[in-house]
Amino acid sequence: MYDLLIRGATVSTGSGATRAADVAVSNSRIAAIGEVGSQAAEVVDAGGLAVMPGIIDIHTHYDAQVTWDPTLSPSPALGVTTAVMGNCGFGIVPSPPPLRDLIMRNLAVVEGMDLDALRAGINWEFQSFAEYLAAVRRRAPYANLAVFVGHSAVRTAVMGEDASVRKQPTSEEMAEMKRLYGANIGETSVPGMEPDTISKYALNILLDFKPE
After folding, report:
1. What is the rounded distance in angstroms from the CA atom of residue 113 to the CA atom of residue 63?
2. Are 151 and 101 in contact (CB under 8 A)?
3. pLDDT in tens, 127-167
4. Is 2 exposed, middle or buried (0-12, 13-18, 19+ CB in 10 A)?
5. Could you tell me what percent of the chain has a pLDDT over 70?
6. Strand pairing partners for 5?
7. Residue 34: partners with Cβ closer than 8 Å, 6 or more residues away
8. How wide is the angle at C-alpha 156 spanned by C-alphas 154 and 159, nearest 5°?
9. I want to staple 82 with a disulfide (CB 3.0 to 4.6 A). Which of 17, 118, 144, 191 is the partner?
C-alpha cells in the first residue's frame, strides 16, 4: 500500500509532454506513475489539476530569511522544491560578531533587504560556515537547499569595512581568505586558484559601494 495517491492529475514530467495519470508516493518518494490502483493511506483527487516536478530556483537570497522563516515564503507556494542561496558573492557567513551589522548593511544596500527586518530576524547562532549549515538544518526548511560560500562575505569577514573600499587584500588577508575557503569547502586550500586569481575574482564580484 502506498502512503499517498494523487489521482487523476494532468502529469508533466518536464519533457514538455503531459498525460492524465495517477502518482503514487511511498517513503516520501515517487513510487509509480500511471494506473496504480487505489490502495493508499491517503488519496487526493487531483482531477482538473496539474502535477509537475518541483522547480529548482538557482538564484535566491534566503540566506538570512531561513534563520527565522523555515517556510522560505513565498517560494514553496510557487512550486519551488530546491533553492540555491549565497548568490552574487553575498551571504551571512563567515560572521565574526563585530562585523555582523556590516554584513546586514551589505545585504540591505546590494540586495534591497530591509535592514530593520534583518537586525530583528537573524538568529546569530553560528559564526562559521559549518555552524551555519548545522543551524539551517535544525530549522528544517520546507525546501531542499544548496548554499554557496560568498566571496564578498569572506572578504568582509577578513577585511571588515576595508572590503568595500580597498581593492587589494594584504598577503596575510589573502592567506586568511584561502584558509576560510578551505574550511568552508572541506579542503585546506583552493584547488586551481592562485592568490592573484582569487584577488581578481574578488574584484569582479565586489561591487563598488560602501554601506551607509
Report:
1. 11
2. no
3. 998 899 999 999 999 999 999 888 888 999 999 988 888 88
4. buried
5. 86
6. 24, 43
7. 21, 22
8. 105
9. 144
